Amino acid sequence: MKKRSLPSGELGLIEQIQRDFATNSSAVKLGIGDDCAILRPPAGCEVLVTTDFTLEGRHFRRDAHPPESVGHRCLARGLSDLAAMGATPLAAFLSLALPSSMLTKAEGRTWIAKFFSGLRALAELHSVPLAGGDTSESPGGKNALILADIVLIGYAPKGKALRRSGAFPGDALYVTGQLGGAAAELAGMLGRRKRIASVKTTEDHPHMFPEPRLDVAEALLRRGVATACIDISDGLSTDLAHLCRASGVNAEIEQEALPIHPLAARLGAKSALHAALHGGEDYELLFTAPASARMPTSLAGVPLTRIGTLKARRTSQPLMTLLVPDSGPEELKQGGWEHFAKPSRNAKKKAR
Amino acid sequence: MKKRSLPSGELGLIEQIQRDFATNSSAVKLGIGDDCAILRPPAGCEVLVTTDFTLEGRHFRRDAHPPESVGHRCLARGLSDLAAMGATPLAAFLSLALPSSMLTKAEGRTWIAKFFSGLRALAELHSVPLAGGDTSESPGGKNALILADIVLIGYAPKGKALRRSGAFPGDALYVTGQLGGAAAELAGMLGRRKRIASVKTTEDHPHMFPEPRLDVAEALLRRGVATACIDISDGLSTDLAHLCRASGVNAEIEQEALPIHPLAARLGAKSALHAALHGGEDYELLFTAPASARMPTSLAGVPLTRIGTLKARRTSQPLMTLLVPDSGPEELKQGGWEHFAKPSRNAKKKAR
């Protein structure tokens, strides 16, 4: 994050961020204010990098999401990618473009302050310093939108990071937490007439304030028991398909085993199942371990549920199968989110 | 960069990028295709990180810039930040949001292919692998714009990276290459009636194809002679002010010493001087060294010019002074670019 000229505008914003996010992290040798930040990862570790957009009208709606939620989710997306690989966060970088009118009007300044407050609360929870980034006025004149891109840098012991590609036939499939809660909460938010002006707590808001599973991931890495891992950001069916393809296996899911989030359960059985299988942004972890491995019922305070088993890859068989009670096996198709897919497919999820 | 669902859209784009940017860099242990990339920086080195937006209508115009230039400049911005600190690039990450119509229409696909061709040519020149990023449809419907954010990860020996803050009173001030060329070329481009459809060579195009000074920076670091360094991305007057403030010094510039780019010289003396002092995006380096240090006339094939001297900080004196021949000292004020400044200040530079 570079300092530019006038206190009135961008420089003022950068200086505010610099004050609010002052870091005493020993891993950040130089933070905001020079051409680059300087990081010092622990010796013997590899460096992990992920970047994630948070674009108004695509990943959030200003008329539906409280700004604290937008800031929280912006950081959570990157943290969850680190968790998916068992990495520990080292630093975050934020590129943020704002409509110029937001900096001059009180309403806009309040939005920005709340956005950073949401981002900072999650950053502090996981001791992640904000070490730099970029700022800009967002283009488009009156149509200008809020545009953010978060970069997370993490570390993991050499060769130990969890990948999507390490699973074997016979491995058991696990998920953390509960599924479908984010999709259920989002559906409720979009059905409201009024925007949610304030939120008292970040707990129990799976869409607005998802909890990246960093502690679970670090515990998994320490135990050395997981063979593959991915976070459920695009929906279980989509992310499981990625894991199966990367590992060269098929998967069988037991429908009855799926841990349905109470918010999803309220929608009725059919919608709840759809939310659990295809609703995105739960930010839980989907991981595999040898079936013989002893797995606790919870890790770092988060429940673990065995939801299925991996099978040898047979192209004559579906990549993913759902074992439906009283009915039998059905092919499980990907129903997740793809940004460039045809509008009709994604129409219901526009706020993502 | 995560793989999502359908080959028709985003996944197709990611797979294309993956093929085109296949890397055999030993520092990239895992590239595009998992939740994070895994990098292995050399032992004993610090990791440097910089992020830079490239937003349509703000940093480039689709009707004025050839797509190869947009891709080149996108990467050049980040590489120049690494050069400013004497770092060696390890990997680049690109977050790219595109209007959905670009993926379905031939014209759009051609634009994207040329954008990546420009980015790839510069990446290959500096052996920088593209190791990941994010993709999205850009929001705004018919008003959707091309939005890019480039992340560069580099490395430098522990404690050796060049900072803005290391200069002392008495140090000599140097610049690489020539100044004002980028502003002069941009003015010419915006004055044209027709868009530049194709460019035969990337040489001698200081605005469209700036050359980040990585080789000079690495040579400076090896010599251990520079006390501070910054890249001239916002204009000499703005970036010199940053260096002076960070180092706690004043500066004196000799107007006659400024190496004016031939494209700027053609504009006449007054405009040329303005372009050299305040025109942004030359992406040359501004660095300092003890006045007693022997400095070659060129480094890594790039001319070095001594343009002034640092003085002790006196608040009664201007931060920066310009020594004008036949006239005497004048205060040099910052005239560079700030994104959130009032529109009138920046009106002439909208394409940046």
What low-confidence regions of chain A span 5 or more consecutive residues with pLDDT below 50?
3-8, 338-352
Would you list the SSEs of chain A in sequence order as H and E? HEEEHEHHEEEHHEHEHHEEEEEH
CATH class wording of the largest domain in chain A: Alpha Beta
The number of helical segments of chain A is: 10
Oligomer: homodimer
Gross morphology of chain A: globular
Name the pair of protein chains with the most residues at their interface, and give those residue counts.
A-B, 89 and 89 residues
CATH superfamily of the largest domain in chain A: PurM-like C-terminal domain
Largest sheet of chain A, in brief, is: 8 strands, mixed
The overall pLDDT average of chain A reads 89
Helix content of chain A: 25-40%
Q: Supply Rg of chain A.
A: 21 Å
Structural class, from secondary structure content of chain A? alpha+beta
Number of strands of chain A: 14
CATH architecture of the largest domain in chain A: Alpha-Beta Complex
End-to-end CA span of chain A: 27 Å
**Fraction in beta strands of chain A:** 25-35%
Enter the CATH topology name of the largest domain in chain A: Phosphoribosyl-aminoimidazole Synthetase, Chain A, domain 2
Count of the domains of chain A: 2
Keywords (chains A, B): ATP-binding, Kinase, Magnesium, Metal-binding, Nucleotide-binding, Thiamine biosynthesis, Transferase
GO biological process, one term (chains A, B): thiamine diphosphate biosynthetic process
Function (chains A, B): Catalyzes the ATP-dependent phosphorylation of thiamine-monophosphate (TMP) to form thiamine-pyrophosphate (TPP), the active form of vitamin B1.
Catalytic activity (chains A, B): thiamine phosphate + ATP = thiamine diphosphate + ADP
